[in-house]
Design a protein that fits this description.
The complex is a heterodimer of chains A (167) and B (131). Chain A has 6 helices and 3 strands, in the order H-H-H-H-E-H-E-E-H. Chain A has 167 residues and is mainly alpha-helical. A 3-stranded antiparallel sheet of chain A has the order 1-3-2. The two termini of chain A are 28 Å apart. Classes of the chains: A mainly alpha (167), B mainly alpha (131).
């Protein structure tokens, strides 16, 4: 009974937390007033819009998002330097742009979205399309001698970790 | 003393941000194929904007009025940039400008953007049932 009541009151706990944090950042001055108003928003908005998203996205191990974020941040920095070198010093005829086909093991829409976003944010690769039933991701690589190698790296470095977080 | 170090950090972040934004613009001019050109702005929007906003946070902290709006800008930018990049790529395929043939999807028949007819469009419910 109590848990069902809590579920009705907080249909999306992570969304509630995110709303409180975003409100704090928007107000830009941490105070007890803004915290209370943020908490009100965090309860009211998910509660009133609950009917429009009946499914709760599953995030089984949210704490693993932190090391994942750090890895991605580090990769963004190093990839930026590599791509900058390619752009500045590699003649156009030597740049081997190619499509990369990544077979997916993750199945939930949230995990696939996170993977596609990560791939685009790390310079040098842009995720473009999903196959018609979501079993493969189409990625464009700016410079890759061996598309297979890029696919393997993405699978072992990002997809494996996202599978732990979301599934 | 500590202010000197902070000043150096702010200056370094600004220079790094400016450099990568510049490289992004150079890439936009220099690269030939449309898909390759798409890679240039993703660089400018991650490390370029990221470190300029970091400089802004540091400066606000140094001048005694801490500001956290920049963190929100980074968060929303990082969430929305991949969407527009994906859209541009999809438009590229839709217009048939793609000269290199797409690889065959791993376990499925076609890529979602290649779907021409009604029965080709992906079924979200089916995807969910699969999961």
């Amino acid at each position: 009974m109590a848990t069902r009541f809590m579920q009705r009151l907080f249909p999306h706990p992570l969304l509630s937390v995110a709303l409180v944090v975003i409100w704090q950042l928007l107000v830009n001055e941490p105070s007890i007033n803004s915290l209370i108003f943020g908490a009100m928003l965090g309860v009211l908005l998910p509660f009133t819009t609950a009917a429009y998203w009946p499914n709760r996205p599953q995030v089984t191990r949210p704490w693993k998002l932190i090391p994942y974020g750090l890895i991605v941040a580090w990769d963004i920095i190093t990839a930026n330097v590599t791509v900058a070198m390619i752009v500045l010093f590699k003649p156009n005829r030597d740049i081997r742009s190619t499509w990369v086909n990544i077979p997916l093991d993750i199945r939930t829409p949230e995990a696939i979205t996170a993977l596609a976003g990560t791939i685009t944010l790390t310079p040098g690769t842009v995720s473009v399309d999903l196959s018609d039933h979501g079993h493969a991701l189409l990625v464009h690589a700016l410079h890759a001698e061996d598309p297979e190698k890029v696919a393997r790296k993405i699978k072992s470095r990002y997809e494996r970790r996202l599978k732990e977080i979301f599934e | 003393m500590s202010h000197d170090i902070l000043d150096i950090c702010i200056a370094a972040a600004l220079v790094i941000g400016g450099l990568f934004t510049l490289v992004g613009s150079i890439g936009l001019l220099k690269l030939q194929a449309p898909m390759a050109r798409l890679h240039a702005p993703t660089k400018a929007s991650t490390l370029g904007v990221g470190s300029i906003l970091l400089a802004s946070v540091l400066f606000a902290y140094a001048s005694g009025a801490p500001s956290y709006h920049e963190l929100l800008i980074i968060a929303f930018l990082f969430m929305t940039a991949p969407v527009s990049a994906s859209f541009i790529g999809k438009v590229h395929i839709h217009l048939g400008q793609n000269r290199k043939p797409l690889p065959k999807p791993a376990r499925d028949r076609i890529w979602a953007t290649e779907a021409k007819r009604e029965e080709d469009t992906p079924d979200v419910l089916e995807m969910k049932a699969d999961a």
